[in-house]
Write a structure and sequence with these properties.
Elements lengths: L5 E3 L5 E3 L3 E6 L7 H5 L3 E7 L8 H10 L9 E6 L5 H20 L12 H21 L7
Antiparallel strand pairs: 1-2, 3-4, 4-5
């Protein structure tokens, strides 16, 4: 997942760990006295807008797709308090960042134009005729006046 200095997102993108900011705070939830005395919750901050690890295209995709997760300055905040260990929470936050960013910068696959089959048109027209015939049967008969 990471070497000493980078977080590998995919084959081409690696975020320098120097761009990431970590903050440890006290976590809530189960854990008894351990939770009350240890700073095991980890907050990870990453400046998407100012990152040099992304190309302009990748940055635009990430800013667009992660817009609801970013603050006003274009920073992404992830919080992990799943584990009782600060190290495991840090690893969890890094893995979540990797997954979120990998899906955000993935290039959309272009749509292949397809033709609808002739049989689909035939079925549609046949059903229209049947529906029209049913409606005609409901009409009162015409009188010669």
């Amino acid at each position: 997942m990471t070497d000493d200095r980078y977080l590998a997102i995919d084959d081409t993108v690696r975020i320098p760990l120097s761009e990431l900011t970590f903050k440890a705070t006290r976590s809530g939830g189960p854990g008894g006295q351990h939770v009350n005395t240890s700073s095991t919750q980890v907050e990870l901050w990453w400046d998407v807008a100012g990152s040099r690890a992304l190309t302009d295209r990748q940055r635009a995709l990430a800013m667009d797709r992660l817009a609801s997760r970013l603050d006003g300055k274009g920073r992404l905040r992830l919080v992990s308090s799943k584990f009782r260990s600060q190290r495991r929470n840090k690893d969890d936050a890094l893995e979540r960042l990797r997954r979120i960013l990998a899906s955000a910068i993935a290039e959309p696959t272009p749509r292949k134009a397809t033709r609808k089959p002739r049989s689909a048109d035939e079925v549609r027209l046949r059903e229209k005729k049947q529906r029209g015939a049913l409606k005609r049967q409901r009409q009162p008969p015409e009188t010669d006046e």
